[in-house]
């Protein structure tokens, strides 16, 4: 069974599929790429069984008939966090703190940063929209560095290509060379719900539905937590 996902969920999906196999379900080979590229490949009709993307992207695919209508299933909630480069090779951790006291603190940090890294995925789109809404788009334009598809912002931070980075918390936790300041405060939080759906091109839709149901079950909750995700209903 074949699946495709965005990069943001690749680690948690690896553990979820291992747990599914241990529960007697079919083996799933998951290819993780940039979310935009993943959606394009699904829309082009590539032979896949399952698709894991942000729920809004899955719904667009469902509307186009590229995933099975009614199969879109919210799985996990991801918060956007902020990080800076670190000389430490120790895996980055998060203590539950907010990166800034409020949105004003975030705006000040953005204005002070020389190079701001963000992703091509939903978190990056939401960040740019928020910056534009604050009227800072033109001021920060030349300093905004969008990661190449499939390249984590954490790598850009560790390589010294950016000074301030924004990405899903799950993509930053455990990475060397970065220090996580925290998640965005409530008045400017960027949360993304990721989900799964059965591809219209699936050769085994019944088996795909079974795997998807397991990923959405209570058995998945400890695995989500271990990767800094919350259940989608949180």
Task: Write up what this structure looks like.
The protein is an alpha/beta fold and 234 residues long. It has two domains: 2-76 and 193-231, Periplasmic binding protein-like II (D-Maltodextrin-Binding Protein, domain 2); 78-188, 3-Layer(aba) Sandwich (D-Maltodextrin-Binding Protein, domain 2), CATH 3.40.190.10. Helix 1 (10-22) links the parallel strand 1 (2-6) and strand 2 (29-33). It has ten helices and ten strands. It is globular and about 50 Å long. Strands 1, 2, 3, 4, 5, 6, 7, 8, 9 and 10 form a ten-stranded mixed sheet that branches.
CATH superfamily of the largest domain: Periplasmic binding protein-like II
Structural class of the helix and strand makeup? alpha/beta
Q: Outline the biggest β-sheet.
A: 10 strands, mixed
Share of β-strand residues? 15-25%
Uncertain runs are none
> What is the gyration radius calculated from CA atoms?
18 Å
**What kind of assembly state do the chains in view correspond to?**
single chain
CATH class of the largest domain: Alpha Beta
Would you count the extended β strands for me? 10
**Shape from CA axes?**
globular
Q: How many structural domains can be distinguished in the coordinates?
A: 2
Task: State the end-to-end CA separation.
Answer: 30 Å
CATH topology term of the largest domain: D-Maltodextrin-Binding Protein, domain 2
CATH architecture of the largest domain: 3-Layer(aba) Sandwich
State the helical fraction: 25-40%
User: How many helices in DSSP terms?
Assistant: 10
GO molecular function: molybdate ion binding
Pfam families: SBP_bac_11
Protein name: Substrate-binding domain-containing protein
GO biological process, one term: molybdate ion transport
């Amino acid at each position: 069974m074949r699946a495709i996902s965005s990069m943001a969920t690749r680690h948690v999906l690896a553990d979820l599929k291992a747990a599914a196999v241990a529960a007697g379900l079919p083996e799933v080979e998951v290819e993780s790429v940039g979310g935009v590229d993943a959606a394009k490949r699904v829309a082009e009709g590539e032979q896949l069984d399952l698709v894991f993307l942000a729920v809004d992207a899955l719904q667009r695919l469902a509307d186009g008939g590229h995933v099975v209508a009614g199969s879109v299933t919210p799985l996990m909630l991801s918060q956007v966090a902020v990080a800076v480069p670190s000389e430490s090779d120790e895996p980055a951790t998060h203590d539950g703190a907010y990166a800034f006291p409020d949105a004003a603190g975030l705006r000040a940090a953005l204005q002070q940063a020389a190079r701001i890294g963000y992703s091509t995925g939903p978190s990056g789109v939401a960040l740019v929209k928020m910056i534009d809404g604050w009227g800072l788009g033109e001021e920060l334009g030349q300093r905004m560095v969008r990661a190449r598809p499939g390249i984590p912002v954490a790598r850009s931070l560790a390589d010294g290509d950016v000074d301030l980075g924004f990405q899903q918390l799950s993509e930053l936790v455990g990475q060397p060379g970065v220090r996580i300041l925290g998640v965005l405060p409530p008045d400017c939080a960027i949360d993304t719900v990721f989900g799964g759906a059965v591809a219209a091109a699936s050769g085994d839709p019944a088996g795909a539905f079974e795997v998807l149901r397991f990923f959405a079950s209570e058995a998945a909750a400890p695995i989500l937590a271990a990767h800094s995700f919350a259940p989608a209903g949180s």
